[in-house]
Amino acid sequence: MLDAHRAAFAARLDALPSAVVHAAPAPGAWSLAQLAEHFVRIDAGLTLTGPPASAIVRATSGARRRALAGVLSLPLRIPAPPSAAGVMPSADPRWPEVRDRWDDVRAEWRSTPAEGAVAYRHPLAGPFLFDDALAFLLAHHRHHDAQVERTLAALGGGPALRSEAKKTRGTQVTAA
């Protein structure tokens, strides 16, 4: 499901004029290319070879992931904690290069994850096992769907620009 969501988002950016993909809708707001780079940086945190998870991590990973997904499902702007500075996008990423980096990150996920290992460390929710990490990443991507819609609308995204957005809204996403 996650790959389908990523592919749909990438296809949307590929279908838009470069000027739209790289334009910020307002001062201080992210362009769609910056949002994509943010996704790449978040997704790059997933590892298939993490350390063994403790019993408490194994027992609570799902509950913590569900709580975080619940927060992400709210229509709120949720600022990243200061400890997450490394996932913020650069000032002017170029979409073709970001897409290539994203493809490289996703290619690393094609192997089998270590059973019972920590696959992702969220700065507030803590460590997640692999399936919970994928579910968090999907919830995080979906959390930004409304931002994409607002960005397209702010950039004069009339029917031609928003038609691509409507095609992928609510896309179900799988791990592979």
From TrEMBL:
Superkingdom of the source species: Bacteria
DinB-like domain span: 2-148
Pfam families: DinB_2
InterPro entries per record: DinB-like (IPR024775), DinB/YfiT-like (IPR034660)
Name of the protein in its database record: DinB-like domain-containing protein
